[in-house]
Structure formats: structure tokens, C-alpha cells
């Protein structure tokens, strides 16, 4: 069947017609109050802000700006609920509430997925297949712990801490809410949750779900707002524990603020994950893994594999395959079921990505950017790979938090480890090899809270997640995740 | 009794397996509980801390690369050494803390037993704090506690040996290396224990001991960015706040002084380990 | 030299080595200057196979699961259904096959839907060698090819001479395509040279007939084996590599198809030789067929999106493709009796 002068085979030549999910499923209200003491209430200062769809820049809803006095109300409600209700609720009963919440999340999964995608900009495929199912799974998993805490390895009768203040980021709004609330409630704490300013909607929907589940008033309070709101929560003397997920910069400030108080603290911060590719890696799955590692959720992932370390002997082949695969990524309407990469979450984040990419060019790295067409409205960044990156380049050191990969090379396993660990972060790394002994050797030496071998960006409620060094401390997930909410 | 003039010992720092005088060349008087001159201890400086951190960083990798069994044997060896020199330890605990011989003896015995207790932990921490996680997918997933790295310890000011052992040996048993500020006023039992590590197969730099003024040295420990964790046991509440604030600069793990009686607890082992989770695909 | 930059400042980049990904980067690049290496010994064959990367089964399965979420609607769906119909090797491989059965199959192959002449005919009918001549006569003048399973299908447990005789007869009776089976026993016991030589020998007696090499992936079990067997077949001159006979419990699966498509892609890129892929056995629904087409589309691309290079070996699949096609046109679900049961 050989012919001469064959044309190259174009990937994805069969164009897919748009397959948009219906935005109407979201049933959004025009405006939302603060969820305090089991009810949606108006903010005390009547300040509001708008949350927009980052893919269109259109307004989605008006959100309440929680003030210091709203935080105070929420903390008092949480304290009252802790003293009067939740600390007197048996573990078995707490478990049943959590099971209920898990089930309602499953029942309303499509609605939650649509809301998440509208508010965050992530592809509907991801919110549908990853965020929402994992949120439900987290509640389901920790539900089972609520009446088994004495078996978790923290003593015979581990006690909760009290009122937990929880501040979550915009990259996985619902999932992060679940990661924070589920273990806290299972351990017997009450909560004040502060969703991210740009992505409050799924948390507010979760508030409705808590109402449907009949969770006692005040056990969970959700106060929307910006950094000022979060700051008020961190400083409130009635809070016993702060759990924060976000940037290392803000985490550092919080640790400093909490230093002079009795508050317990866990931090899940930034990262600059190394994805190490040995020459005997399973090449096709590895290319997919690199893609998942950096382009999942537009690269808005603290554990993203944003530094690719490739063994020099296969670097050219890997780069060629990678670039080809990048061009295949379908960038566009997050609501389209066939979209691989959605919108950047905010104008601010887009600005930061652009700036760091400009540095990459300035520093002399070779930039490959997908030729995909980007929508005119909204915040977009085409998937980008930088080759010829050195360890001293800024794009190899700073967290970009966007769809931008830096490719570096190494010659020996020792060198791979040295480069991977040459960062103040220490959240996650990947290793690709068909040789088990070398994979384990590598995993043992990587300074990271999570190591994915022949896979990347996998999450599970039973699996502890969290960082070392400046990526923070404390774990979410698994038995380890309970420690953050028990007085041990 | 004898008219022989006794040979006095110079009490020095322990940095990277060597016993230097302070880089500053300074020393300070150590006074017994009965207000008698005991010795001139080295007055450690920030530069001594700096050297100790470099040593501890290198030593930590070496220490962790030993098998857990081997680390247990090394720590157990320290207990053997301490036992054989326990008279000396008892003497200085007595002088330092102003307790009677019986109490000093009991305290030293407890400290040595505690070293043995921790020696046994080296090869059990992983099993107790780690394990396999049943993730919903074709992955083998396991978590192990790895040492945090280099730990700064502000040892208790009162309990010159027992307290020191508790704060120092726990992180070492977990695989960390330590830079310890000995009790400012009662440093000698700690210095003696440091000497014993040199005959216990401890790799140089795993335990570094700095004597001197806590108020000054602790600030250096807390702000040093290449220290990963900080045990504030020997700091009072206000000072602990200040140190915890400084420690936040590099996101250190901070263990605050505990009011609870946690005698048989493993919280000191837990405090300075990082749970590391590995996922690996399962397939044919 | 580089001026100090501060985050937040506006940066002008002019000299940067920016390079947009080009259409060339987006393709499977077929090296027409390259050649298929001549295999002189089993050792040499072994050393070529040793250069192949392993397959991580979890990753391969995750990849097809993700591709299975592609939502194919409207005009894309119509195009995909028609393409799938044109790629069908309409198959009957039963002991009870008769000339009558083959006649009705051939009739359906030429004109799958007598009510709608815009429906394309299928690619081929696939029968046992003794029915080739009959099929050939019924299909005379049509574009539908005759494919014959040969080489002691499905087990392949016969001497090479018997297998070659089987092929010669099928070709002599007018088969356009020969679907042979590899010696799985030889493969699994490490006699890969024998597997290779047998394919070479069959290819020689095929003459102008196209050779499809059935790997029987359900018996090879691992994806690593599938990748290796694919390469052996391609090096030996296969025009197509085919998953299964349909006669063992595990037939075509999407991850196996993915691994085989990756093999033909890499083979084309290194040797310039383009080999087709046929998935066979157990594919019964239009939904499944479309999922395979999505895998083809996103793994090897446009060159392979043709019956010349991708086939479905199936029987009941055709009616479901026809039903879904009519459903797209009518906007309502269709009775199965709308189409003949052949």
C-alpha cells in the first residue's frame, strides 16, 4: 500500500460539532447571601461583588462581601453549634449526616458540574468526571471515620479541635470545600468556610445541600468575600484552627499571623512539581501523563507537573511527540463536552501567566505554543511548552499556575533527583519508567508529599495529599487527614 | 581527699562530629544550682549555628540512607555509652539541677531508658504512621513518613538531660538531623551526651549541640531558612510566639511547648515527619 | 545583559525565539525516504523489538476511557456513521455457512439500505475460503471486496504447507484480501522468528491480495505483546494488522486498538510504510464503532480515516449503524425490523 509522496496524516481531521452542556441546568439565582447559622443571610454591610464566567466575562450572580462582623457572626454560630449540638452528636450520627451530603452531591452532580464550570472556566468534562465525583467520594470516605476515630491511631478518645476556619482556593472550588469540610465534620469540629472570591458559587450550592441534608444550623457556615474576609477569619480569636489552601506567599502571612495565637494550622501551598521521564518510560502513556500533569485544569493545579525533566537520550523524541500532542488539545468553550482546556480563571491570573511566559522568552527558552484559535471574549491562554529551559530560569523556579510547561534535561538518575529537589517547594513529582527498582529509588529520594509513578494528577479520598518544605504542612485525605482536625 | 590537682574539662560545642570552641572565641560561666562555678561553657554564635546547619544538612541525607535497623542500633549504642558513663551524668545533673543523688540517678536512668525507647522506634514509625491506601483505581498506593530534614531544638531550660534527650532523640529517631540549643544555665549534661554520640557510630553532624545564650541563638535558629522544623520546648510563651513568627518565614514546622502530659505519646515523632505518598500503576 | 524585570511590569519581547506549533508538528510524519529494515535473523528481529517502549496498561486504558467521553453529535455523527458503514467487513464465519447465507450477506454488503441509496456499501464481505468463489460471483461488478480467512483459521494449528495451500486456494478463487492468523503458540514460547517467517511466506503466496494479519490479541493478553506482535507483522509485510478472530472469549478492545494504532503510526514514521488496522469481534453498536473512530482520529489521523486503512470486522454492527443513521435523519428511534436481519 505504499505510495510515493504521501501527505502527512493530520490528527483530529474529523471535526467534532459543538456538544455544549446546558447552562440552564445551573438554576443560578441572581444574588446570594452568606450562609450563616443554617440560613442565607444578607451581609451586614450590604457590600456585594459580582462573580463572572471567565469564558465569557458575563456576570453570573451577585455575591455578598463578608465583613469582619459577618465573620464574627459565623464564628459565633459555629461556636454555639459546637458547644450545644455538634460536640454532643455521636460519631455515628455525624457519619449519617456526611453520608447524606455525599448522596445529595451525587444526586445533584450534573447541576454542580455545570455551576463549577460556569464559575471557574474548567472544562465540563473535568468538573463532571473529576471535581464533583471526588467531592462526593470525600464526604463518603470521611463519613465512615466519624464513628471510628479511636481506631485512627490518635489515642483512645481523640477530641476535635473546636471551630475550624477554612480558606479555599479557586482552582477546585467544590472539591477543596469537600476536602476541608468532610474530615473536619467527621472529627467533630464545626466550620467557617471562606470560598475564593472568583469562585463562590459551588460552595453556596453546597450550602443548599447542607440544608437539604438537615445538617444542624451553624455546624457549617459559608462566608463569601475577598482577602479581607479571609483575613478576618484568620484573626478571629474564636477560631481554634485554620486550614488554608492557596499560594505560599499568603500561607506565609497566615503562619505569621497565627504564630502568636493558640490556633492550630495546616497549609497546602504552591508547588513546582518535577515530572521525571527516564529513557525506558512507556512512551505513549508518558506523553499523556505529561499532558495531564500540566494541562489538567488549565495548569491551575498546585501539584502540576510544571517542570518536565527528560533523560537527554530521548529528549528530542519526547519533545516532538509532546508538541504534536499539545497541538491536538481542544481549547475553548468549557461547557463543550469535547473541550480539553478551558478558560483561565481570572484576568489577574492571565496577566501573571503572560508575564512569566514573557520572562521565559526573555531568558532564551524556546517557546512552542499551540496554534489553536482563542475565543475573543474571556480569559484564555494557549497551551505552551518551553524547551531548552535551565534550572536557573525563572520559569523553572516560579509557580506559573497556568498551561505552561518547562522542559529540562538530565543525564543520570542522580542528576534527575538533584534537579527535581532543587526548589523550595516540595508538593508533588512524577516518575516515568518501566524499571521498578529505579522508580522506587527515585520516589524514595524525591522531596515531595506525593509521587506519581507512571501516572500523574490522581487524587483519592483515601490517599494523603500535602506538601513538604514551602509547599506547606499537614495532609488532606486518608487517615492522615484526620490529624489536622483532632487535638493530638 | 587526694591532694592531686584535678584535671578540668573544657566543655565545647558539638558541630559536625567535632568539638570546637565557639567561632567567636567567647565563653560564659556555668554556675551550679548551689551557685558555685562549674565551668566555662562555649558561647555559641550565629556563625556556629550556620556551620551546624551546613553539617546537619549533609548529615541528614547520610543518616536517612542508613537502614532503619542500623539507625536503631546507633541510638541504642548511645544508651550503652550513657549507661557506662552514667556516674558522670548523674553528677552533673545533680549539680546543674540541684537535686539529690537519688533524684539525679533516677532522672539519668529515665533519660537512658528513653533513648532505648526511641532506638526501638526507628524501624516502626513507617508501619505505625504509614500504610497502604485503598484508592479507587488500578494503583498501588502507599504512604510513608519521611524525615522533615534539619530540626532546630530549643531544649528545656530546667530538665538538663531528660528533657534534652526527649527533644533531641525523637527527631533523630525519625531520621532528622538536629541542631540543639542546650539549656542555657544547665548545659553540661547535654554536652556530655554529645561527647557520647562520638563513640556511638553517629554520623558526624546528625546531632549538633550549641551552648550559649538562648535568647540570642534561638532567634538565629528560627530565622535560618535552611532549617525545616523547630521545637520550642525551651522557650517561654512570649518568646515562643516570637520564634514561631520568625519560623513562618520559611514555612517551618513548629512544635510549641506542650502543657499536656504526653509521656507515652509519639507526638514528637509525628511532629517532624512528612507523609510521602507514592502511587504506582498496577497492570500486566 | 538582560534587564531586570519585575512582575507587574509590561514587557516587550521582540527577539524571543517564539515558535508557534505548525501543521507539520500536528501530523504523523510519514518518512517516505525510509525503508522497512530487512530482517536477516531472529536475533536482529529481537533487537528491533527491544527498542519498542513498554505499554503501561493503566495509562492506555485511561486514554481510551477519556476518548470515550467525546460527544459526537449532528453532522459529525452522520459523517462518522457513514464512514463506519464503509469500513465494515461484513462477516460470516460459521460452520453452518451456506451459499444462500453468503448470497444474502453479499446483497446487504452492496446495498445495506435498499430504501436509501445514499448509504455507502461496506468495504468487504469476509468468509471462509470455500465460499470465496460464490461470494465473488455475487459481488461481481461491485466495489465490495472479498476477504477470506485462511491459514487454518481460527487456531492456526496446522503445518505451514497446509496454511499456504489454504491461502493459495482462496486467492485462486478470487479473494481480494486474506485474513491470516499468527502462530500464537510460537509467539508465546518466544519463537518470534517463526512467527515472522510464516507471515513472510503467506505474504508471498498472496500475490496481489492484501494481507491482514490477525494477532488474536485475546490470547496474547498483554499490551506489550500486542505492540511486539504488531511490529513483527508489519516488518513481515502485513498490509493490515487485525485484532481478533472473534472465536476466542476476548476480542477487540479499545485499548488494544489504541496500542495497534500507535504501532502503525510509529511504523509509518520510521519506515514510511503505511499499514491498516482492523478491529474485529464483539463490536455490535454504532456507539462502539464511533468510539473506535475517535481513537483513530486522535491517534493516527486523516490518512487512516478511510476503509483502505481501517476496518470493522462485524456482522450485527451494520444494522445498528443503519438504525442510528436513520434516527439522526428522522429524529426518532427506529424499529429493528426496519432493516433486514442478514
Explain what the structure shows.
With 488 residues, chain A is α/β, with parallel strands linked by helices. Chain A has 14 helices and 19 strands. In chain A, the strands form 4 sheets. A 7-stranded mixed beta sheet of chain A has the order 14-15-16-13-12-17-18, with helices on both faces. In chain A, strands 9-8-7-10-11-19 form a 6-stranded mixed beta sheet, sandwiched between helices. In chain A, strands 2-6-5 form a 3-stranded mixed beta sheet, covered by helices on one side. The radius of gyration of chain A is 23 Å and the shape is globular. By secondary structure, chain B is of the alpha/beta class. Chain B has a single domain (10-281), classed as 3-Layer(aba) Sandwich (Aldehyde Dehydrogenase, Chain A, domain 1). In chain B, 43% of the residues lie in helices and 18% in strands. A 5-stranded parallel beta sheet of chain B has the order 7-6-5-8-9, sandwiched between helices. Chain B has a 3-stranded antiparallel beta sheet with strand order 3-4-10. In chain B, strands 1-2 form a two-stranded antiparallel ribbon. In chain B, helix 3 packs across helix 4, helix 4 (101-119) runs parallel beside helix 6 and helix 8 runs parallel beside helix 9 (237-247). The longest helix of chain B is centred in the first third of the chain and has 20 residues, at 46-65. Chain B is globular. Chain C is an alpha/beta fold and 342 residues long. Chain C has a single domain, classed as Aldolase class I (TIM Barrel, Alpha-Beta Barrel). Helices cover 43% and strands 12% of the residues of chain C. Chain C contains 13 helices and 10 strands. In chain C, strands 3-4-5-6-7-8-9-10 form an 8-stranded parallel barrel, surrounded by 7 helices. In chain C, helix 3 packs across helix 12 (286-299) and helix 11 packs parallel to helix 12 (286-299). The longest helix of chain C is centred in the C-terminal third of the chain and has 18 residues, at 254-271. Chain C is globular. The termini of chain C are far apart. Mean pLDDT of chain C is 92; it is low at 1-17. Chains in contact: A-B, A-C, B-C. At the A-C interface, strand 1, helix 9, helix 10, helix 11 and strand 14 of A face strand 1, strand 2, helix 2, helix 3 and helix 11 of C.
Amino acid at each position: 500500500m505504499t505510495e510515493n509522496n504521501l501527505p502527512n496524516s493530520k490528527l483530529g481531521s474529523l471535526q467534532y460539532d459543538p456538544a455544549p452542556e446546558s447552562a440552564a441546568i445551573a438554576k443560578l439565582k441572581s444574588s446570594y447571601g452568606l450562609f450563616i447559622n443554617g440560613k442565607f443571610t444578607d451581609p451586614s454591610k450590604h457590600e456585594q461583588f459580582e462573580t463572572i464566567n471567565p469564558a465569557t466575562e458575563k456576570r453570573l450572580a451577585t455575591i455578598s462581601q463578608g465583613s469582619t462582623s459577618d465573620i464574627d457572626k459565623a464564628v459565633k454560630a459555629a461556636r454555639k453549634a459546637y458547644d450545644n449540638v455538634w460536640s454532643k452528636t455521636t460519631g455515628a450520627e455525624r457519619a449519617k449526616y456526611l453520608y447524606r451530603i455525599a448522596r445529595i452531591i451525587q444526586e445533584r452532580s450534573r447541576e454542580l458540574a455545570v455551576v463549577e464550570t460556569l464559575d471557574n472556566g474548567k472544562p465540563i468534562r473535568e468538573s463532571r468526571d473529576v471535581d464533583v465525583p471526588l467531592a462526593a467520594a470525600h464526604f463518603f470516605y470521611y463519613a465512615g471515620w466519624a464513628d471510628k476515630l479511636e481506631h485512627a491511631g490518635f489515642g483512645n478518645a481523640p477530641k476535635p479541635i473546636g471551630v475550624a476556619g477554612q480558606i479555599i482556593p479557586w482552582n477546585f472550588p467544590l472539591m477543596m470545600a469537600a476536602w476541608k469540610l468532610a474530615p473536619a465534620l467527621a472529627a467533630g469540629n464545626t466550620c467557617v468556610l471562606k470560598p475564593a472570591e472568583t469562585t463562590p458559587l459551588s460552595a453556596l450550592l453546597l450550602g443548599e445541600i447542607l440544608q437539604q441534608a438537615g445538617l444542624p444550623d451553624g455546624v457549617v457556615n459559608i462566608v463569601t468575600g475577598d482577602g479581607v474576609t479571609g483575613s478576618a477569619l484568620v484573626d478571629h480569636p474564636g477560631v481554634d484552627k485554620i486550614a488554608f489552601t492557596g499560594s505560599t506567599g499568603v500561607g506565609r502571612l497566615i503562619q505569621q499571623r497565627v504564630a502568636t495565637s493558640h490556633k492550630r494550622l495546616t497549609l497546602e501551598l504552591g508547588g513546582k512539581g518535577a515530572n521525571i521521564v527516564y529513557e525506558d518510560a512507556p512512551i505513549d502513556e508518558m506523553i499523556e501523563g505529561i499532558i495531564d500533569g500540566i494541562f489538567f485544569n488549565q495548569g491551575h493545579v498546585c501539584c502540576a507537573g510544571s517542570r518536565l525533566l527528560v533523560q537527554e537520550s530521548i529528549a528530542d523524541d519526547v519533545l516532538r511527540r509532546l508538541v504534536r500532542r499539545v497541538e491536538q488539545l481542544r481549547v475553548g468553550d468549557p461547557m463543550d463536552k469535547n473541550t480539553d482546556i478551558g478558560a483561565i480563571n481570572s484576568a489577574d491570573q492571565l496577566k501573571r501567566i503572560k508575564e512569566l511566559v514573557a520572562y521565559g522568552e526573555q531568558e532564551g527558552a524556546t517557546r512552542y505554543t499551540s496554534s489553536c484559535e482563542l475565543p475573543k471574549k474571556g480569559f484564555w491562554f494557549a497551551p505552551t511548552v518551553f524547551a531548552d529551559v535551565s534550572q536557573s530560569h525563572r520559569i523553572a523556579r516560579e509557580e506559573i499556575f497556568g498551561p505552561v510547561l518547562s522542559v529540562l534535561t538530565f543525564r543520570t538518575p542522580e542528576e534527575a533527583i538533584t534537579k527535581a529537589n532543587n526548589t523550595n517547594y516540595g508538593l508533588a513529582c512524577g516518575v516515568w519508567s518501566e524499571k521498578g527498582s529505579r522508580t522506587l529509588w527515585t520516589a524514595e529520594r524525591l522531596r515531595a508529599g506525593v509521587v506519581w509513578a507512571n501516572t500523574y494528577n490522581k487524587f483519592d479520598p483515601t490517599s494523603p495529599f500535602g506538601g513538604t518544605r514551602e509547599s506547606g504542612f499537614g495532609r488532606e485525605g486518608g487517615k492522615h487527614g484526620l490529624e489536622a482536625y483532632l487535638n493530638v | 581527699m587526694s591532694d592531686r590537682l584535678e584535671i578540668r574539662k573544657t566543655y565545647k560545642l558539638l558541630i559536625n562530629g567535632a568539638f570546637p570552641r565557639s567561632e567567636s572565641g567567647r565563653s560564659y560561666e556555668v554556675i551550679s544550682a548551689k551557685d558555685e562555678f562549674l565551668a566555662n561553657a562555649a558561647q555559641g554564635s550565629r556563625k556556629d549555628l550556620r556551620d551546624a546547619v551546613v553539617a546537619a544538612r549533609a548529615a541528614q541525607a547520610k543518616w536517612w540512607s542508613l537502614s532503619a535497623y542500623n539507625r536503631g542500633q546507633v541510638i541504642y549504642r548511645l544508651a550503652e555509652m550513657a549507661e557506662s558513663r552514667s556516674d558522670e551524668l548523674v553528677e552533673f545533673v545533680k549539680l546543674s539541677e540541684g537535686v539529690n543523688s537519688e533524684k539525679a540517678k533516677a532522672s539519668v536512668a529515665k533519660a537512658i531508658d528513653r533513648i532505648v525507647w526511641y532506638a526501638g522506634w526507628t524501624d516502626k514509625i513507617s508501619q505505625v504512621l504509614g500504610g497502604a491506601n485503598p484508592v479507587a483505581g488500578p494503583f498501588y498506593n502507599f504512604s510513608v513518613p519521611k524525615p522533615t530534614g534539619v530540626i532546630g531544638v530549643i531544649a528545656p531550660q530546667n530538665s538538663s538531660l531528660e528533657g534534652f534527650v526527649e527533644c533531641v532523640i525523637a527527631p533523630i529517631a525519625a531520621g532528622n538531623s538536629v541542631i540543639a540549643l542546650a539549656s542555657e544555665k544547665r548545659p553540661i549534661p547535654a554536652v556530655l551526651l554529645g561527647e557520647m554520640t562520638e563513640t556511638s557510630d553517629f554520623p558526624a553532624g546528625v546531632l549538633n549541640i550549641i551552648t550559649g545564650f538562648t535568647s540570642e541563638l534561638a532567634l538565629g535558629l528560627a530565622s535560618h531558612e535552611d532549617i525545616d522544623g523547630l521545637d520550642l520546648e525551651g522557650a517561654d510563651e512570649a518568646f515562643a510566639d516570637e520564634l514561631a513568627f520568625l519560623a513562618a518565614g520559611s514555612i517551618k514546622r513548629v512544635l510549641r511547648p506542650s502543657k499536656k502530659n504526653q509521656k507515652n505519646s509519639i507526638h514528637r515523632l509525628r511532629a517532624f515527619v512528612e507523609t510521602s505518598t507514592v502511587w504506582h500503576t498496577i497492570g500486566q | 545583559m538582560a534587564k531586570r524585570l519585575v512582575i507587574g511590569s509590561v514587557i516587550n519581547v521582540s527577539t524571543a525565539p517564539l515558535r508557534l506549533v505548525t501543521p507539520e508538528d500536528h501530523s504523523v510524519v510519514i518518512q517516505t525516504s525510509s525503508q522497512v529494515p530487512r530482517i536477516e535473523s531472529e536475533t536482529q528481529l529481537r533487537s528491533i523489538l527491544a527498542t519498542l517502549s513498554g505499554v503501561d496498561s493503566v495509562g492506555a486504558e485511561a486514554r481510551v476511557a477519556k476518548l470515550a467521553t467525546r460527544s459526537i453529535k449532528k453532522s459529525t455523527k452522520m459523517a462518522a456513521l457513514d464512514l463506519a458503514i464503509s469500513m465494515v467487513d461484513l462477516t460470516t464465519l460459521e460452520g453452518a455457512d451456506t451459499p444462500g447465507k453468503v448470497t444474502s450477506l453479499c446483497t446487504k454488503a452492496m446495498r445495506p439500505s435498499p430504501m436509501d441509496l445514499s448509504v455507502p456499501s461496506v468495504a468487504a464481505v469476509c468468509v471462509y475460503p470455500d465460499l470465496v468463489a460464490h461470494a465473488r460471483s455475487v459481488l461481481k461488478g461491485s466495489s465490495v471486496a472479498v476477504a477470506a480467512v485462511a491459514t487454518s483459521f481460527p487456531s492456526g494449528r496446522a503445518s505451514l504447507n497446509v496454511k499456504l495451500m489454504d491461502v493459495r486456494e482462496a486467492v485462486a478463487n478470487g479473494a481480494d484480501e486474506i485474513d491470516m492468523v499468527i502462530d500464537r503458540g510460537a509467539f508465546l514460547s518466544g519463537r518470534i522468528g517463526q512467527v515472522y517467517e510464516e507471515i513472510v511466506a503467506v505474504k508471498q503466496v498472496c500475490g496481489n491480495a492484501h494481507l491482514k494479519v490477525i494477532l488474536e490479541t485475546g490470547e496474547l493478553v498483554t499490551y506489550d505483546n500486542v505492540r511486539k506482535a504488531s511490529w513483527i507483522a508489519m516488518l513481515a509485510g502485513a498490509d493490515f494488522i487485525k485484532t481478533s478472530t472473534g472465536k476466542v472469549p476476548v476480542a477487540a478492545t479499545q485499548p488494544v486498538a489504541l496500542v495497534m494504532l500507535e504501532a502503525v503510526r510509529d511504523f509509518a514514521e520510521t519506515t514510511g510504510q503505511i499499514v491498516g488496522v482492523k478491529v474485529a469481534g464483539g463490536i455490535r453498536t454504532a456507539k462502539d464503532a464511533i468510539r473506535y473512530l475517535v481513537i483513530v482520529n486522535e491517534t493516527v489521523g486523516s490518512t487512516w480515516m478511510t476503509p483502505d486503512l481501517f476496518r470493522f470486522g462485524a456482522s450485527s454492527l451494520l444494522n445498528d449503524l443503519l438504525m442510528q443513521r436513520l434516527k439522526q435523519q428522522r429524529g426518532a428511534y427506529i424499529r429493528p425490523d426496519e432493516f433486514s436481519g442478514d
